[in-house]
Design a protein that fits this description.
The chain has 255 residues and is an alpha+beta fold. 29% of the residues lie in helices and 32% in strands. It is built from 8 helices and 11 strands. Helix 3 crosses helix 8.
């Protein structure tokens, strides 16, 4: 079920879990939890009961952002799905970002969260620059791969501008001049000509999915952009080439 299949018990970008279905009021009763009627804590409480922490018991959740699209009710039957969207080594710890969603018995998305965990056991998670999307090191990998692609060079042979790529709060700029990326930086002085924008879980789907369906999803309007919208639409081909190279880099790193 994971875009990136796991190896043993190692967490990595793309690792997914799915819980059993449970009726909300029964789950709370089994756990001895009583919540006031109408509380906004119902969704987070149920998600925590159904979704174990990532990695080992040494993990500490440092951040939680919760969004309720259609708040769950005590009589609902729900399950959780989780996806690791980022793994970063930080000294003797590992930072793991995870998306958790609550779905009901007709698979409708009801509530969702983004969590940041700090894991003390660094051996439980695999941090790879190739799957740390829209960072400096990732951008360099993409640049080096594109340098050997004549299709990319020809698609931008007369273009002078900057392509921005954003994943959650991370953004990288590829400065392009006549078919060649001449700089990879977090910010260019004049800003990006346009910036391709998608949340972390979408980047994981696009990078690690079995099929390269970027163009289909782009045409369907699943992504967004900032800056010059005309240039974003006009440069769909080179953007598709960039995504294809990034997919190869990510999947080879995890193979």
């Amino acid at each position: 079920m994971s875009p990136g299949t796991t190896s043993g018990h190692t967490l990595r970008v793309g690792t997914q879990t799915q819980s059993r279905y449970a009726r909300v009021n029964a789950l709370l009763a089994e756990s001895g939890i009583a919540l006031p009627a109408g509380t906004s804590l119902l969704g987070p409480a149920v998600a925590e009961l159904l979704t174990p922490p990532p990695g080992t018991s040494s993990g500490v959740r440092e951040y939680l952002s919760w969004r309720a699209h259609d708040p769950i009710e005590p009589d609902d039957s729900v399950r959780t799905e989780s996806m690791i969207t980022r793994v970063v080594a930080d000294g003797d710890t590992t930072i793991v970002v995870r998306r958790v969603v609550l779905r009901d018995n007709v698979n409708a998305l009801r509530e969702e969260a983004v969590e940041t965990w700090q894991l003390r056991d660094v051996g439980t998670a695999l941090a790879l620059p190739a799957t740390d999307f829209c960072t400096d090191r990732w951008g360099v990998l993409v640049r080096d791969s594109l340098a050997a692609d004549p299709d990319f060079a020809s698609s931008l042979a007369t273009w002078d501008g900057t392509i921005g790529l954003r994943c959650d709060d991370r953004e990288i700029h590829l400065r392009v001049y006549r078919g060649r990326i001449i700089d990879v930086t977090r910010r260019t002085p004049g800003g990006a000509t346009f910036t391709f924008v998608a949340p972390g879980h979408t980047w994981v789907d696009v990078m690690l999915g079995e099929r390269d369906d970027f163009m289909r999803r782009a045409i369907a309007g699943e992504f967004s952009s900032t800056g010059n919208g005309y240039e974003y639409l006009r440069l769909t081909k080179p953007l598709n080439i960039i995504i294809a190279h990034a997919r190869t880099i990510a999947q080879e790193a995890q193979s």
